[in-house]
Amino acid sequence: MSLDNSLEFGATLPDQVERIVGAYDAYLELISDVSLFRIIANISWNVVIQVRELYTARALLERDSANAAYDSIIESMTKSAQCHIDYADQLTTQTIDTLKAIEKYNDGAKKTEIRFFERIVADRDRTYADRLKSKQKGRASDDKHADRAAKQAEQQRTDMMNSKNSYIIATAVANRIKAKFYEEDVPNLENELQSLERRLVERFVQVLVRCQQAHMSHLDTLKSAVAHVEIKFNEVNVITDQNLFIEYNLRTFASPADWKFEPCDIHYDTEAMYVEPAPKVVLQNRLHRCRNKASELSPLMQSKRGRSYSHLFGLLLGEEATSMSSQLVTYTPDSSIGAIDELTDRYLSANHQAVAYATSNCILGCEVDVIVKAIGDDEGPRQPHDFKSSSFSIPTHCGYCKSSIWGLSKQGKTCKTCGVSVHAKCELKVPANCEQPANVSHDSMLSRITGPTSRSGVPEPESEISTSASSFIQSISSEETPSTDELLQAKVLFDFTATSEFELGVKEGDLVRIVEADDGSGWVKVVSRNGNDGLVPASYLETADHDSGNTEGGQHGSEKRVRAIYPYSAQSADELVLQVGDVLVLSPDGDRYADGWFEGSTLEGKRGIFPSAYVEVI
């Protein structure tokens, strides 16, 4: 059947996914209704039983010459009923079971597409929410700047400018994602539903044609009626029906208006981004990071994106996916089950991954465009630092703000090239002028920087960028907020099955540790108890709020004491030796020092850390 005159749902029915799904459900209900032909078998069997009872009763009443004629009538009716039974069995095995299998598969395919639609809607709403958060954060920084102008004018002004820049970028990203959602994602999804519906109807028609052919062979007297029905089914034109559906569902559609920057109402403000030295360094580092991630993403997209049959199926991935799309286009509908279903599943999975890659590329491109428009050719030094997350067992000065970095919960980062250490929140504020120092004291560096292994002996995964589609985007605002790094543990709310090598399968109720927080893509990188790491949807996790309530008032106003219940020998200078019965006083927030570790002091005043499993709260 030619597809040249076919209209696409995505182009003609914008933002009408629910209506298209309703039409698809109507076809599934039709198949379910046709499957009720099983009643024929029950009726035929009842006829056979009644005829046999009549025959037995008549034979017992009398035996004369009239019985011969009566017996022939009974035998004729029995054969006719048996013929109906045979036909019903044939109808059940060849038609009903096939229709049920087709209905089950297509219902699953529809649910998959609906879940994908809900996911991209959630991604869109999350982008919108990020914009509002950036706006609120920017306004909060403005007020903070006003309150502290007398003491910290320059620092507050810099923070305000950085917050505003993040807000402008988030606004631009939200607009770009909004346009992509309505112009690409939703139309492509509707086109996929259209293709599924077309193939469903074509297969349904072929199954019914086969049913009518079997009916013709069952009874010669019904051949003419069955042939007429077959002709009618062969006259079904799915494309014409879909075009008619489009004609009766055309609506006027206008894409929502773009968001605009809303200036601060307490001082003179414009849409221009701040490009003074301090915020410019952040923008330059952010530009370098976006370009690096885009360069990692570009080869994947070039090697995996194809355009064959893109007018029918949207984005396709690689030679294998191009071959799949060719098979789908040349597919001849039949009544069998198997290859086409698996092919469709693999094609849809590839297309969903392409959408994720395109979204990541769109966000990175938007950030680069906005930053380049603001700073022009002044991209600063071209020697970025190679920062990696580090733990600090002794206090170390930050290379940017000069304050101390100390802790085992990865509160800072160290450049592997030049050895400079900074807070995680200061990373983007350091100019990209990394140089290899002439003399680096490796012994001193090792004495203050511990590796990525926790004291409990369980290796902690490094914060690396995965090559999945959702990991190419990393929000600057998330790195500048210390509380993001402190959300170390989360609970899984729903089962999640990994669909690629970059994802991690988890079960409801599992406890995982967050390695990389949600960067705006809707995914979180976590590590499980057995050491496996990967990406899971952010909406599938419930994180523990480490900053709520416990840092105020009463917790600091009273001492919390613990008693040692097991002896413990110190493994380093910053650890305390415990004896059974020893009483220790926890320092402020000492019970949240690190995973499995408390911080406190003995009654003699010696301060250090010790395993939380070796003590009990008094």
From TrEMBL:
InterPro entries: AH/BAR_dom_sf (IPR027267), Bzz1_SH3_1 (IPR035459), C1-like_sf (IPR046349), DAG/PE-bd (IPR020454), PKC_DAG/PE (IPR002219), SH3-like_dom_sf (IPR036028), SH3_domain (IPR001452). The keyword Zinc applies. This is Uncharacterized protein. Residues 131-159, 445-480 are annotated as: Disordered. Residues 384-434 form the Phorbol-ester/DAG-type domain. PROSITE patterns: SH3 (PS50002), ZF_DAG_PE_1 (PS00479), ZF_DAG_PE_2 (PS50081). SUPFAM superfamilies: BAR/IMD domain-like, Cysteine-rich domain, SH3-domain. Residues 485-546, 557-618 form the SH3 domain. It comes from the Eukaryota. Residues 131-157 have a biased composition (Basic and acidic residues). One of its GO terms (molecular function) is metal ion binding. Pfam families: C1_1, SH3_1, SH3_9. One of its GO terms (biological process) is regulation of actin filament polymerization. Residues 464-480 have a biased composition (Low complexity). The keyword tRNA-binding does not apply. Keywords: Metal-binding, SH3 domain, Zinc. It comes from Psilocybe cf. subviscida.
